Amino acid sequence: MEFDQIITSPEILQATRELGWMTPTPVQAQTIPVARSGRDVVGIAQTGTGKTGAFLIPALERQVHKEGLHTLVLCPTRELAQQVAADARVLARYTELWIGEIYGGVPMAPQIRDLRAGFDLIVATPGRLIDHIERGNVDLSEVEVVVLDEADRMLDMGFRPQIEAILARLPRERQTLLFSATMPNGVHALALRILNDPEWIAVARPATAADKVEQRVYPVRPEQKSSLLLDLLEREAMDQVLVFTRTKIGADALFARLRQRGISVGLLHGDRDMRDRQKALDSFARGDIRVLVATDVAQRGLDIDGISHVINYDVPQHPDDYVHRIGRTGRAGASGTAITFVTPGEIALLREIERVLGYRLPRTTLEGYESILALEPPAKPVTAVNRAGSRLGARSTADLSPEELKALLSVG
Description:
Elements: H1 10-18, H2 26-36, E1 41-44, H3 51-63, E2 71-74, H4 78-91, E3 99-102, H5 108-117, E4 121-124, H6 126-134, E5 145-148, H7 151-156, H8 160-169, E6 175-180, H9 185-194, E7 199-202, H10 208-211, E8 213-219, H11 225-235, E9 241-244, H12 248-260, E10 265-268, H13 274-286, E11 291-294, E12 309-312, H14 319-326, E13 336-342, H15 347-357, E14 382-385, E15 391-395, H16 402-409
Parallel strand pairs: 1-6, 1-7, 2-4, 2-5, 3-4, 5-6, 8-13, 9-11, 9-12, 10-11, 12-13
Antiparallel strand pairs: 14-15
Helix pairs in contact: 2-3, 3-4, 6-8
């Protein structure tokens, strides 16, 4: 299938051709025809699958010759809203559609002026959009398509009340497209309640984690983490390094330590002023700074080519967060390296990531650091019995052959 088979607007098709898009990704091939028909869609798709184009193309096609605000896209973070709006402008470059972006952390006045001038498509974060709605700055009465992008992250960030309030202001007769990397109970319940007989579309997890990114685990004691990072920065050829910490306090402390050692470093987390966050992102994208320390605010929606290394200074709390974090490197066909520091207290988190990935991440040690490999308890043995009743033995699941593992999973 080619794009000219599923795109009817000559203006949108010309834009995709100039982008070099010839063949749609699986989520685009499945979503665009359904969305163009007007049916609601639930898309289970992660970053890197082409989901942004999957909802922007049919939305833009639907209103290419209309005037007024007919499409609303909700995103969890400013960074993702900026990226989606930029993609929309590129796709709409041969149309007369005006694309707006509304998010917090910046002055209200310029946004009020732009909203009164009028947009055809708005990409917004829920909190700031509610502020404008309550002040009467935006009219949603003619919205025909609403998109919830990364719905799981919006719910995780506590945006459910704002989402509910926004949806209550929209026309009942509308098309709703909901995209989420995961489908926890909260997102599933929301989809069932706000969508009308949706088409459920799921695409496979991108293969970038296994195919494009070298993954390594460094066991380390908590008090040695910063020293290990500094040694790695000195010993390895790391050009652009994105370092993830679990907390804002941890990010602040690491940022200060690196800067004290003379390393060019930026800082990105939710408590930073928006201008400072944007300045850090721009400096990192230009290569003016070598290291960007960030919390999970940057794991999605950060689209910067050339990131050579992603370092999980703290093990992510959820396996999906691990995939999103390391997906910031190995982009645009390039290779990348993902390094995870793990302390004895984080072994369980690491094991859960490995369970979801389906393979064990290689452990690596650095000279001068005490290895804690011996402190890592062995995987719990299992005794598997197949349907015929034969015992597979008490071994770790990592030691089972594919046939034995299949038999284990078929028990019961």
